[in-house]
Amino acid sequence: MVEIVLIYGLIINIIGMYVMYDDKQRAKRRAYRISEKTLWIISIIGGAVGATIGMHRFRHKTQHLAFRIGFPLLSIIDIVILFFILFH
């Protein structure tokens, strides 16, 4: 069970970081964008740490207060849940 949780966490956070990168690239090209709803869903289902890192690394959505506050809060929740699963 622990291995599955760790693998899931790793994969969803890589996806979270990638979608922030991809949406930033699409914004630069003025292409069809990834919806904010999709960004939030990925974060809510466990990808908040990766999305937060991606947000800062690629300087994407950093001017949006909801993302600046919401993603780090979800990251804390994700980390607490992970520790609870691993050490309970």
What number of structural domains do the residues give? 1
Radius of gyration: 13 Å
Question: Could you state the oligomeric state of the chains shown?
Answer: single chain
Distance between the termini: 12 Å
> What is the helix fraction of residues, given as a range?
over 70%
Reported for the largest beta sheet, the result is: none
Describe the structure.
Helices cover 83% and strands 0% of the residues. It is mainly alpha-helical and 88 residues long. The model has no long low-confidence stretch (mean pLDDT 96).
What is the element layout, followed by pairings?
Layout: H1 2-29, H2 36-57, H3 65-87
Helix pairs in contact: 1-2, 2-3
Briefly summarize what is shown.
With 88 residues, this protein is an all-alpha fold. It contains 3 helices and no strands.
Key terms:
mainly alpha; 0% strand; elongated; 88 residues; 3 helices; single chain; 83% helix
